[in-house]
Amino acid sequence: MLTFILRRLLIAVPTLLLISLAIFLLVDLAPGSPASQIPLTVPPEVKAKILAAMGADQPVLVRYVLWLKQFFWVEPAYWIDGHFGTNLADGAQRIISYQTRAPVFITIGERIPQTMTVVGAGYLIGILIAVPIGIYSAYRQYSWFDQAGTFFAMMGFSVPTFFTGVLLIVIFATKLHWFPSVYDTTLLVTDWSSFVAQIRQMVLPVTVLALFNAATISRYMRSSMLDNLGQDYVRTARAKGMGEGTVVLKHVLRNSLIPVVTVIALGIPSIFGGAIITEQVFKVNGLGAALITAINANDIPMVQTLTFIFAALIVLFNLVADVLYGVLDPRIRYA
Q1: Is the model's pTM score more than 0.85?
Q2: Which of 27, 98, 95, 91 lies closest to 66, judged by CA?
Q3: Cα(74)–Cα(258) distance, rounded to whole angstroms?
Q4: Torsion sign across C-alpha atoms 323, 326, 329, 334
């Protein structure tokens, strides 16, 4: 297994470098520049000094190498210094947002808790709903439960989240006044009443995301279970007198999880990326909202950094999926 993991890591390193170069060039060479944000009344010499202070006067490859150094060395060094009182960073230049003039990772650190709380909870609840529904729907194929599960899954997958979000706001916030329609990112959980307020404001956005994720994953779970329920090893296990619970939950489920693991693992980076539409509907001040704001403001360092983080997470969880394949089916380790 160690050799299997090391082989995947060796593939991931050059992949990340190529992705970082592609992202940097695409964002940097796109229309719009830091100079476009400077008022026309600013004298040319002052404008040149501003661009030099932002590092925008250097050639593109020089800026790319500097950005890599800041991302992989300077920012981790500042994190270590802040937690352990060391001086590794030694005042080195950080990745600075054009929009806020503050380090990009400070903004990211402020936004991650909101994203993880709402989007992460929605994804986890969606998985917990989807897997049992997919298993039982496949085992009871064409039953009323399977038909109902298929109908709701198609509805959840087909209806866009902005429509579901607005519908829930109209019903449960505007008409019934059960839950707030806007997520309060300034709320601090310090006692029982603030904890209840936090749960109440999470209900609607988490419900929207959980329904969408459950609809997608349950269909994969059902399809994979159906493929394995008809295999010869299942008939052999039943012929040997194994109980249905053992056959379904031990043998069939383990083999059926291999394709589902891919869907779940590749969906995890979307948690960190934020559910952009849902965050906009419920005014959740997460990473998705930060990315949209940065794009609108031509905040190149923020866009480059967030995009690369999302890409790196996809590569990472691809690796996690590969490792889980090896755990579920040892034959894959030698592929």
Answers
A1: no
A2: 95
A3: 39
A4: positive
